[in-house]
Amino acid sequence: MLDELAKEGATDYVAMALIFSDSTRHFIAFATDKEDGFRDDELAFLESLLPQLCLRIEVEHTRQLADQVVQVYLGSYAAPRVIGGEVRRIRGESIDAIILAVDMRGFTHLTDALDPDAIVATLSVYYDAVSGPVIEAGGDVVKMILAVIQPFRLSRVTHALEEIPGFPGMTVTDARGFGREKSMREEGAPHRVIEDFVEYISKIRIEIVARDEMVETIASTIAREARTGNKGDGKVFVWSVESAMRIQTGQTGEDAV
């Protein structure tokens, strides 16, 4: 990221901690292209803004989390109505609905037995069989691609994705955890405990919402560019997105991707 900022003319970069009300630590970053970088008084001013920024960002974060949770349990149709106060206790409405529940049996075993490209191809065939009737009936189908990769492969993956025509963009966050590679420190345990501290392995989480026809290309590109051949390279997951809206224009469905 710093290399990319430097290429765009940035001369100074600072990251400051935001402590939410639940004591979780987050960060906000600022960059400048001024020749001498940030002055001390400018840094002090930015720091003075942190309490207000923290409150505003936490409110938005909580709202987005609530939206996501409600949509998971109530669906894209009912969720905004519940949050908007349209649906309350002792009030109901009858609607016509079709519920389709599908699952790929043995998927966990497939991830252990097949290489990433083969897994993505298998998922694509399976999803086409399931989503085909929805598309034929005029429904909108978009997918969420979630990838967990090694931090030092992010730049390589990003540059490759940017070369894909029509690439919709992505969200990148730091993540920690462990998989079958377990801990870098202790081969026989899933993590290492030092007093009250649990050490997990640092990863990068990439989230992309894309049109159905782009998914296989995007997922294969991530798998190819993130692969080192060593344990801990990461994984790529693909699943359906119930709804999407572009905030600027209000477009929904595939038009919002």
- Average pLDDT confidence is 77
Unreliable stretches: 183-197
CATH class of the largest domain: Alpha Beta
Taking the sheet with the most strands, its summary is: 4 strands, antiparallel
Query: What is the CATH architecture annotation of the largest domain?
Result: 2-Layer Sandwich
Percent of residues in helices = 25-40%
The total tally of domains equals: 2
* Strand order in the largest sheet: 4-7-3-8
Content of β-strand: 15-25%
Question: How many runs of DSSP E, i.e. beta strands?
Answer: 8
Shape: globular
Indicate the radius of gyration in whole angstroms: 22 Å
| Total helical elements | 6
Q: Could you tell me how far the N terminus lies from the C terminus, measured between alpha carbons in angstroms? A: 24 Å
CATH-derived topology of the largest domain: Alpha-Beta Plaits
Task: Give helix and strand order, one letter per element, not per position.
Answer: HEEHHHEHEEEEHE
Structural category is alpha+beta
